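Let's practice the habit of predicting before peeking. Look at the sequence and jot down your guess about where helices and strands might fall. Then scroll down.
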Amino acid sequence: MLEMRPDCERCGVDLPADEGGAFICSLENTFCADCADALDERCPDCGGELLDRPARVGKLLAKHPASTTRHARAH
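Done guessing? Here is the structure:
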């Protein structure tokens, strides 16, 4: 099950689990659309593709809530 990280790891912008606009690699590193574009859709950690993260909504989100641990890195 995806961790559904709550923020962009590059700029720290909020990325709600029930909305689109988040991009992830196979290791679940998570970035906003602007940062994914700036990174040429490549994860700076693993070099893998950054792909659209699916939204988690409704009962599934209630049963499996998004993480609250923020991962933004200081620049």
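How did you do? The mean pLDDT is 94.
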